[in-house]
């Protein structure tokens, strides 16, 4: 497959010439998931994204496929059951991306604590049953206070009463998006970045028939015609809805900003992902996650109304997170100067839904009778005096006052909204990364119905739970062994073992295409052979158009390899300029863009004003 700058030009020509069944506006994880399923069904699908794929929100998450155990504080069983099922589905269709990594929850005896040791054990047992966790490597267990401190000696000992360990998954959000996009292109979709919708088009009867769009790399404007248009623009959803000047739109989005900070692992050593209350009695929890010789932590959760394209970490955000970390790890004394990288992103929350991925929602209360029933049946189950069906029956009858249990009839997952405007514009908004496949499946059901009823166009349904993303053709039950076997192909061609395995983990089954490039490439100036291979593959097969695309989203070099970035960036810019034929002015422009992105990640402005 070719998916390059040249492919982009071909795709733009196709968008101009062809009449689509479906135009998708927005190339984050939601749009990518819809594109994957629609293209696989043979629906003639085009997708436009005004930035790079995943640039707006879907590369800026906590980089976990999170199980949502916190919702079991109030036995919000439905959302946890859905979440862990969807997590399993993603791990099946994209096995090289989400990877199991058990999470530690230290428990403190503090006002407003999310869990006590007792409630945590009950929640973890329920979680394992909902997630069907049976492998002894991953089943939950509790730790005493001393065992927690043996594992993480820098944790605050005051008021620590113990902890628990349960299964969670680390992930690579931007890679998940691009692998969905690539597969959609393979299956016939027309996937195009840096193209912005500027106006919705209607026929004489007021029915939506496409969009006026702009190629942001050339400023050319053109029209795209489609039977149906779906708005998957995340935080920008309201902006897309407002592209119809005659429509009276009530805004539905209430984005919040999440910030994450990265430090060297030796400044904040943790053996595994760790998740705890902030200690500020603000009903939030914070993740601390080891990754690639670094440790990152977050997230904030604040309402956001500024520039959607460029959310940044403020001094207030940084101070908030540093205060929490320095409280929970009192001997580390982190300062802003320890921060090597950062990222800030927006969560596409529905205004009527106060729940974010990790922090929130109206937690409500559980009636005393329901609480007692759940505790009794779980204890009986543990003592082999109740069956699994007994547990399930009690959970079905839980009388929760959670506001979000009164589900939105148009939602396809918790916190999402799927609606059709009077002119026919479909909007799929809200939700979270873990739900993306389920949200897309709900949208595809609606799209199939509309195509059939309005246009007599019929398409056979698919089971998207078995629809692998690009690179996902691996044994999902034995991923590590499969990737190790693939890495041996790179070693056989002369790559160091560590480099070969790193590439296999990044590209999954597609790494064979990367290794094939060894026969025609040598290391570019300033880059290792492995770096050269990855860059060339990104240019030819992942529509990488700028150095920031590559160093931030196709790889996480800017975030997790800051110590080599200043050297590598020179080799990357030079090789991209040579391969893409940039003139000196464009090369300098791309380098300036990269330096700006690095400075934002470095928090250079905040540090200089420190």
From TrEMBL:
Residues 21-349 form the FAD dependent oxidoreductase domain. It comes from the Bacteria. It is an enzyme of class 1 (oxidoreductase). Residues 465-587 form the Alpha-glycerophosphate oxidase C-terminal domain. Pfam families: DAO (PF01266), DAO_C (PF16901). Its EC number is 1.1.3.21. Gene3D superfamilies: Alpha-glycerophosphate oxidase, cap domain, D-Amino Acid Oxidase, subunit A, domain 2, FAD/NAD(P)-binding domain. InterPro entries: DAO_C, DAO_C_sf, FAD-dep_OxRdtase, FAD/NAD-bd_sf, G3P_DH_FAD-dep. It catalyses: sn-glycerol 3-phosphate + O2 = dihydroxyacetone phosphate + H2O2. Keywords: FAD, Flavoprotein, Glycerol metabolism, Oxidoreductase. Its cofactor is FAD. Belongs to the FAD-dependent glycerol-3-phosphate dehydrogenase family. PANTHER family: ANAEROBIC GLYCEROL-3-PHOSPHATE DEHYDROGENASE SUBUNIT A, GLYCEROL-3-PHOSPHATE DEHYDROGENASE. NCBIfam families: glycerol3P_ox_1 (NF033461). This is Alpha-glycerophosphate oxidase.
């Amino acid at each position: 497959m070719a998916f390059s700058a040249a492919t982009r030009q071909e795709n733009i020509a196709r968008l101009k010439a062809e009449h689509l069944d479906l135009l998708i506006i927005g190339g984050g994880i939601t749009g990518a998931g819809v594109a994957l399923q629609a293209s696989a069904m043979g629906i003639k699908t085009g997708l436009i994204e005004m930035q790079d794929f995943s640039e707006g929100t879907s590369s800026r998450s906590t980089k976990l496929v999170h199980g949502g155990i916190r919702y079991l504080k109030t036995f919000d069983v439905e959302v946890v059951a859905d979440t862990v099922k969807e997590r399993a589905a993603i791990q099946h269709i994209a096995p090289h991306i989400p990877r199991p990594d058990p999470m530690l929850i230290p428990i403190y005896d503090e006002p407003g604590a999310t869990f006590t040791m007792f409630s945590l054990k009950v929640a973890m047992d329920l979680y394992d049953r909902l997630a069907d966790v049976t492998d002894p490597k991953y089943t939950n267990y509790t730790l005493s206070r001393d065992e927690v401190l043996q594992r993480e000696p820098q944790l605050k000992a005051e008021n620590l009463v113990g902890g628990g360990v349960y299964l969670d998954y680390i992930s690579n959000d931007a890679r998940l998006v691009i692998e969905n996009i690539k597969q959609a292109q393979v299956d016939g979709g027309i996937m195009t970045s840096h193209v912005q919708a500027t106006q919705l088009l209607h026929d004489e009867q007021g029915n939506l028939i496409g969009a006026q769009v702009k190629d942001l790399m050339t400023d050319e404007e053109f029209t795209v015609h489609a039977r149906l248009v779906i708005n998957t623009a995340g935080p920008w959803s309201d902006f897309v809805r407002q592209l119809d000047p005659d429509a009276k739109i009530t805004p539905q989005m209430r984005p919040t900003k999440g910030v994450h900070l990265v430090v060297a692992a030796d400044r904040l050593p943790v053996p595994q992902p760790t998740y705890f209350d902030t200690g500020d009695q603000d009903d939030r929890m914070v993740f601390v996650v080891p990754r690639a010789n670094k440790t990152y932590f977050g997230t904030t959760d604040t309402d956001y109304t500024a520039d959607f394209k460029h959310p940044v970490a403020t001094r207030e955000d940084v101070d908030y997170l540093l205060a929490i970390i320095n409280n929970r790890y009192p001997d580390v004394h982190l300062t802003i100067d320890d921060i090597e990288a950062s990222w800030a992103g927006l969560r596409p929350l529905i205004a009527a839904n106060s729940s974010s991925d990790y922090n929130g929602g109206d937690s409500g209360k559980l009636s005393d009778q329901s609480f007692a029933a759940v505790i009794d049946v779980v204890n009986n189950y543990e003592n082999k005096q109740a069956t699994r069906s007994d547990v399930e029956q009690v959970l079905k009858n839980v009388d929760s006052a959670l506001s979000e249990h009164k589900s939105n009839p148009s939602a396809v997952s918790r916190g999402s909204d799927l609606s059709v405007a009077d002119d026919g514009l479909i909007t799929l908004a809200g939700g979270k990364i873990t739900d993306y496949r389920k949200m897309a499946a709900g949208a595809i059901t609606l799209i199939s119905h509309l195509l059939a009823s309005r246009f007599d166009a019929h398409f056979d349904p698919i089971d998207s739970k078995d629809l692998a993303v690009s690179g996902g053709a691996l044994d999902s039950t034995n991923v590590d062994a499969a990737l190790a076997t693939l890495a041996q192909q790179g070693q056989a061609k002369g790559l160091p073992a560590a480099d070969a395995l790193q590439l296999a983990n990044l590209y999954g089954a597609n790494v064979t295409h990367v290794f094939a490039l060894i026969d025609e490439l040598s290391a570019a100036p300033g880059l290792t052979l492995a770096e050269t291979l990855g860059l060339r593959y990104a240019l030819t097969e992942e529509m990488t158009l700028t150095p920031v695309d590559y160093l931030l989203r196709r790889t996480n070099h800017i975030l997790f390899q800051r110590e080599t970035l200043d050297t590598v960036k020179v080799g990357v810019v030079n090789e991209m300029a040579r391969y893409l034929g940039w003139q000196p002015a464009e090369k300098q422009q791309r380098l300036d863009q990269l330096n700006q992105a690095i400075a934002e990640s470095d928090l250079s402005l905040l540090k200089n004003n420190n």
